[in-house]
From TrEMBL, chains A, B:
Residues 32-51 bind DNA. The keyword Transcription applies. Keywords: DNA-binding, Transcription, Transcription regulation. Transmembrane segments: none annotated. GO terms for molecular function: DNA-binding transcription factor activity; transcription cis-regulatory region binding. This is TetR family transcriptional regulator. InterPro entries: Homeodomain-like_sf, HTH-type_TetR-like_transc_reg, HTH_TetR. Residues 9-69 form the HTH tetR-type domain. The keyword DNA-binding applies.
Length: 186, 186
DNA sequence: GTCTATATTAGGATAGAC
DNA sequence: GTCTATCCTAATATAGAC
């Protein structure tokens, strides 16, 4: 294991943080390499030392998210009861939506990314598997739609003004309650 | 009242239909005037006879939506009981999400539009008023977040595969049920 | 690892013919 | 009302110096 001295925000790490902020604020397509370079205090050419293309930056920015989602599902698969699996998935998704909410919103909603990932179908497959895991093989439409509303609403609800007065624990609790109501697990 | 002979898809109407489809599929920013012109079978310059700028096209595409949302709120204001107002708002939003779901998704989620409208704050004001109308002046956080999840989830749920097997009436019913659960009106 | 300078392409927008 | 031709700008990307 190599040493990680002082965890300085340098090189790629800093670029990724800047890029994510701009992607979340303006959308990926509207964020130019110039914008990222300016904000990071380097030149456009400087970016190309680290990344060959813009898409490479985009995918690297969202790498933590793209890894975290399947991890949630794997943890849920370990449970034996449906209730436990549902709680694991809802809790895991909420955790991600709250703590990486910029990335989660980009991942769920940005049209640029939808196209980029759509080519590899990985997201859709993950979601199919996860849905089946918590809904069962032949779910009733109402519950399926409730789940769709939850996952789609999570990104938006996570950054809603209604969240501001709440502390972390209350936020998790409120979102979990939404999920349970939609899935009729209350 | 002028005659509307044969309702031909011509001129602006056809351009708007094409533009909306591309905006919904690829995002506004990723849709160039060239793309719209190609798909509509005209040249880029042809677009400029009808519209001076791209933003003008964008706003005209979404005009029906931007008019429909305040109309829902006005109808809801006419009711005296909270329950009736909630049903009017939920029903109205669902109607829009189902029958203009491309436009609704663009309106709710496209970063380009968020910026364009953000400058005039009109959407935020409409939503503030509508929230207050159905939640009351001092709502509890859980219900506020439930409403946020509903409005944000509606766009995504409206085009989810889970909708496919259902007819129109069942779709409306399922989405209404989601809203009622989130707002605890069941 | 970051810079200056530049190639190349695409996008928004305009002028003026038909 | 639509076309051809063109302008200008900005965006992705590369070459090569420091």
């Amino acid at each position: 294991m190599s040493a990680v001295p002082s965890r300085r925000r340098t090189g790629r790490d800093q670029l990724l943080a800047v890029a994510l902020r701009l992607f979340a604020r303006d959308g990926i397509q509207a964020t130019s390499l110039q914008d990222i370079a300016d904000e990071a205090g380097v030149t456009k050419a400087g970016l190309y030392y680290h990344y060959k293309t813009k898409d490479e930056i985009v995918l690297d920015v969202l790498r933590p998210l793209l890894d975290a989602l399947p991890a949630v599902t794997r943890r849920a698969e370990a449970h034996r009861t449906r209730t436990a699996r549902v709680d694991e998935v809802l809790g895991g998704l909420i955790e991600i939506a709250l703590y990486e909410h910029s990335g989660f919103a980009v991942l769920m909603q940005d049209p640029y990314l939808t196209r980029l990932l759509g080519q590899q179908e990985s997201m859709r497959q993950w979601w199919d598997g996860t849905s089946t895991l918590i809904l069962g093989p032949d779910p009733d439409p109402q519950t399926r739609i409730g789940l769709a509303m939850f996952i789609n609403g999570l990104a938006g609800a996570g950054r809603d003004p209604a969240m501001t007065p709440l502390d972390d624990r209350s936020r998790r609790q409120a979102l979990l309650e939404c999920g349970r109501r939609l899935l009729r697990c209350d």
